[in-house]
Amino acid sequence: MIRPLKHEPADILAAALTVIYTDGVGASTAKVAAAAGVSNGTLFNQFPTKQALIDALYLSIKTDLADAVGALDPDEPLKARMRQVWDRWLAWARANPEAHAVSNLLHDSDLVSGEAVAAGYEITSAATGLLVEAQEAGLLVGLPLDYLGALTVDHLDAAVSAGLDDRQAGVAFDVLWRGLTTTT
Q: In angstroms, rounded to a whole number, what is the distance separating the alpha carbons of residues 176 and 155?
Protein backbone atom coordinates (compact mmCIF):
# COMPACT_ATOMS: atom_id res chain seq x y z
CA MET A 1 0.00 0.00 0.00
CA ILE A 2 1.26 3.45 -0.91
CA ARG A 3 1.35 5.91 1.95
CA PRO A 4 -0.10 9.35 1.34
CA LEU A 5 2.35 12.18 0.95
CA LYS A 6 3.29 13.94 4.14
CA HIS A 7 2.74 17.65 3.77
CA GLU A 8 5.13 19.77 5.75
CA PRO A 9 4.04 23.01 7.39
CA ALA A 10 6.88 24.77 5.54
CA ASP A 11 5.27 23.86 2.20
CA ILE A 12 1.97 25.38 3.29
CA LEU A 13 3.74 28.49 4.61
CA ALA A 14 5.58 28.92 1.31
CA ALA A 15 2.26 28.73 -0.54
CA ALA A 16 0.66 31.17 1.92
CA LEU A 17 3.51 33.62 1.34
CA THR A 18 2.97 33.55 -2.42
CA VAL A 19 -0.82 33.76 -2.21
CA ILE A 20 -0.82 36.63 0.30
CA TYR A 21 1.83 38.45 -1.72
CA THR A 22 -0.34 38.12 -4.83
CA ASP A 23 -3.85 38.43 -3.38
CA GLY A 24 -3.35 40.34 -0.14
CA VAL A 25 -4.36 39.55 3.40
CA GLY A 26 -7.91 38.68 2.39
CA ALA A 27 -6.71 35.56 0.55
CA SER A 28 -8.71 32.50 1.46
CA THR A 29 -7.32 29.43 3.15
CA ALA A 30 -8.83 27.43 0.30
CA LYS A 31 -6.59 29.30 -2.16
CA VAL A 32 -3.57 28.71 0.09
CA ALA A 33 -4.40 25.00 0.32
CA ALA A 34 -4.77 24.75 -3.45
CA ALA A 35 -1.45 26.54 -4.00
CA ALA A 36 0.21 24.14 -1.55
CA GLY A 37 -1.37 21.15 -3.30
CA VAL A 38 -3.21 20.05 -0.16
CA SER A 39 -6.81 19.83 0.92
CA ASN A 40 -8.38 22.32 3.28
CA GLY A 41 -8.44 19.54 5.86
CA THR A 42 -4.69 19.04 5.59
CA LEU A 43 -4.09 22.77 5.90
CA PHE A 44 -6.25 22.91 9.03
CA ASN A 45 -4.52 19.84 10.47
CA GLN A 46 -1.26 21.78 10.30
CA PHE A 47 -2.74 25.19 11.21
CA PRO A 48 -6.03 24.85 13.12
CA THR A 49 -7.22 28.37 12.26
CA LYS A 50 -6.46 31.07 9.74
CA GLN A 51 -5.04 33.06 12.66
CA ALA A 52 -2.61 30.23 13.39
CA LEU A 53 -1.55 30.21 9.73
CA ILE A 54 -1.03 33.98 9.65
CA ASP A 55 0.93 33.95 12.91
CA ALA A 56 3.09 31.03 11.76
CA LEU A 57 3.82 32.75 8.44
CA TYR A 58 4.75 36.00 10.19
CA LEU A 59 7.05 34.20 12.63
CA SER A 60 8.60 32.16 9.82
CA ILE A 61 9.48 35.36 7.98
CA LYS A 62 10.86 36.98 11.14
CA THR A 63 12.97 33.88 11.82
CA ASP A 64 14.37 33.98 8.29
CA LEU A 65 15.20 37.67 8.71
CA ALA A 66 16.85 37.06 12.09
CA ASP A 67 18.92 34.26 10.56
CA ALA A 68 20.01 36.62 7.78
CA VAL A 69 21.00 39.32 10.26
CA GLY A 70 22.90 36.72 12.27
CA ALA A 71 25.04 37.23 15.32
CA LEU A 72 26.64 40.53 16.10
CA ASP A 73 29.94 41.00 17.87
CA PRO A 74 29.19 42.80 21.15
CA ASP A 75 32.74 44.15 21.18
CA GLU A 76 32.12 46.14 18.00
CA PRO A 77 31.04 49.77 18.47
CA LEU A 78 27.28 50.27 18.48
CA LYS A 79 27.28 52.23 15.22
CA ALA A 80 29.19 49.42 13.47
CA ARG A 81 26.70 46.83 14.73
CA MET A 82 23.78 48.99 13.63
CA ARG A 83 25.39 49.28 10.20
CA GLN A 84 25.80 45.48 10.04
CA VAL A 85 22.11 45.05 10.82
CA TRP A 86 21.23 47.68 8.22
CA ASP A 87 23.33 46.03 5.50
CA ARG A 88 22.18 42.49 6.30
CA TRP A 89 18.50 43.50 6.59
CA LEU A 90 18.65 45.26 3.22
CA ALA A 91 20.40 42.29 1.63
CA TRP A 92 17.70 39.98 3.00
CA ALA A 93 14.89 42.26 1.78
CA ARG A 94 16.46 42.49 -1.69
CA ALA A 95 16.85 38.70 -1.87
CA ASN A 96 13.36 38.04 -0.45
CA PRO A 97 11.07 40.77 -1.78
CA GLU A 98 7.91 38.69 -1.31
CA ALA A 99 8.75 37.86 2.31
CA HIS A 100 9.67 41.47 3.04
CA ALA A 101 6.43 42.76 1.52
CA VAL A 102 4.25 40.14 3.22
CA SER A 103 5.88 40.76 6.61
CA ASN A 104 5.04 44.44 6.32
CA LEU A 105 1.58 43.71 4.97
CA LEU A 106 0.76 41.35 7.83
CA HIS A 107 2.18 43.63 10.49
CA ASP A 108 0.39 46.70 9.13
CA SER A 109 -2.90 44.85 8.74
CA ASP A 110 -3.17 44.12 12.46
CA LEU A 111 -4.05 40.52 11.55
CA VAL A 112 -1.04 39.13 13.38
CA SER A 113 -1.88 38.34 16.99
CA GLY A 114 -0.28 40.34 19.75
CA GLU A 115 1.49 37.20 20.92
CA ALA A 116 3.02 36.65 17.47
CA VAL A 117 4.08 40.29 17.19
CA ALA A 118 5.79 40.01 20.59
CA ALA A 119 7.44 36.75 19.54
CA GLY A 120 8.59 38.42 16.30
CA TYR A 121 10.26 41.19 18.28
CA GLU A 122 11.94 38.57 20.44
CA ILE A 123 13.13 36.66 17.37
CA THR A 124 14.69 39.82 15.93
CA SER A 125 15.96 41.08 19.30
CA ALA A 126 19.61 41.00 18.18
CA ALA A 127 18.70 43.83 15.81
CA THR A 128 15.97 45.61 17.75
CA GLY A 129 17.91 45.40 21.01
CA LEU A 130 20.52 47.75 19.59
CA LEU A 131 18.16 50.69 19.93
CA VAL A 132 17.58 49.81 23.57
CA GLU A 133 21.34 49.60 24.07
CA ALA A 134 21.78 52.98 22.40
CA GLN A 135 19.09 54.49 24.60
CA GLU A 136 20.68 53.08 27.75
CA ALA A 137 24.03 54.51 26.64
CA GLY A 138 22.43 57.95 26.22
CA LEU A 139 23.12 58.06 22.49
CA LEU A 140 19.56 58.51 21.21
CA VAL A 141 17.75 61.77 20.71
CA GLY A 142 15.00 62.48 23.22
CA LEU A 143 12.13 60.73 21.47
CA PRO A 144 10.18 57.60 22.49
CA LEU A 145 11.92 54.34 21.66
CA ASP A 146 8.84 53.01 19.84
CA TYR A 147 8.92 56.03 17.56
CA LEU A 148 12.64 55.63 16.84
CA GLY A 149 12.16 51.92 16.13
CA ALA A 150 9.32 52.66 13.71
CA LEU A 151 11.43 55.36 12.08
CA THR A 152 14.27 52.88 11.60
CA VAL A 153 12.02 50.26 10.02
CA ASP A 154 10.36 52.87 7.79
CA HIS A 155 13.80 54.08 6.71
CA LEU A 156 14.82 50.51 5.85
CA ASP A 157 11.60 49.98 3.91
CA ALA A 158 12.14 53.23 2.01
CA ALA A 159 15.68 52.13 1.10
CA VAL A 160 14.30 48.84 -0.21
CA SER A 161 11.45 50.50 -2.12
CA ALA A 162 13.79 53.04 -3.70
CA GLY A 163 16.13 50.29 -4.87
CA LEU A 164 19.16 52.02 -3.40
CA ASP A 165 22.51 50.64 -4.46
CA ASP A 166 25.12 49.85 -1.82
CA ARG A 167 26.66 53.32 -1.86
CA GLN A 168 23.29 55.01 -1.58
CA ALA A 169 22.26 52.60 1.17
CA GLY A 170 25.38 53.60 3.09
CA VAL A 171 24.46 57.27 2.76
CA ALA A 172 20.91 56.45 3.88
CA PHE A 173 22.28 54.68 6.96
CA ASP A 174 24.37 57.74 7.82
CA VAL A 175 21.27 59.95 7.48
CA LEU A 176 19.35 57.61 9.80
CA TRP A 177 22.19 57.43 12.32
CA ARG A 178 22.50 61.22 12.49
CA GLY A 179 18.74 61.49 12.95
CA LEU A 180 18.57 58.92 15.74
CA THR A 181 21.58 59.87 17.78
CA THR A 182 23.06 62.83 19.59
CA THR A 183 26.52 61.88 18.26
CA THR A 184 28.01 61.29 14.82
A: 7
